[in-house]
Amino acid sequence: MFKVTINNNDNSLLxxxxxxxxxxxxxAIIYPNxxxxxxKLTKLGxxxxxxxxxxxxxxxxxxxxxxxxxxxxxxxRISNGKYNxxxxxxxLNCNETGLNNALHGYIYNQYFVITKQExxxxxxxxxxxxxxxxxTQGFPFPYIIDITYTFTSSKLTLDFKVTNTGxxxxxxxxxxxxxxxxxxxxxxxxxxxxxxxYFLDDKMIPHxxxxxxxxxPLTINDTFLDDCFIINKPATTFNCEAFNIAMDFSSKTxxxxxxxxxxxxxDCIAIxxxxxxxxxxxxxxxLLTLKPSEKFDWQINMEYL
Length: 305
Prior knowledge:
5% helix; 26 strands; 50% strand; mainly beta
């Protein structure tokens, strides 16, 4: 039986929504006040997600690594935080101060509320919602975003619904930034269907498409990755000693995008599905727009084997 419980903390940022199934040795922990981010996923006692600890040190980690954060209204970077939309110039807050970029959007640290939860013998689902009134610097567009987690014994489904509640059209993209815990990254294998990636400048901003620097499947060995890949099919797999991951995500454009990052610690890997490229507000690669009262749906399915 799957069970959903809520654990409140003296520091509300560390409040937890806990999903458990004792028979499966399954546990998932979501932090609603850190952008509804998933900070733990364990199956049969094996930890899949590299999340944060439930303390002040964990909050510092999250600030620096964006563990499992949701990236909206843009994933990755916007160069200098500047963009033009419908002949109006906007200036986003540049939270990546060293490179002077706007990084990972605005919902990763917002307070989400639970609007629905269900639990039964075979699954559990929880829906989180955030209502933006359009007062954010550089993105003055009201919207509601609903994120539904559905867990089974072998699969996580993430359903996103974005609703434009304002009077004007706005540009956007979506992404997810999970890190997967790895005991031996060198022997792990990453695979996807793609032939190209972006050449990045010294600000980590893409300027042109170049051929993929390696063949897939890639046994990582000592490869360092901090790259955005243009993929033909919105899917990827990752196999390591402890578990296998198969992820697919819906796409509204001809091309799909996958960001992969291997930290210097070599104890985890970030595998990030995205609807658009970095700096999409400027280069428009994969950029989406949403008209007043319109809704946009996006889904990620992740099997853990």
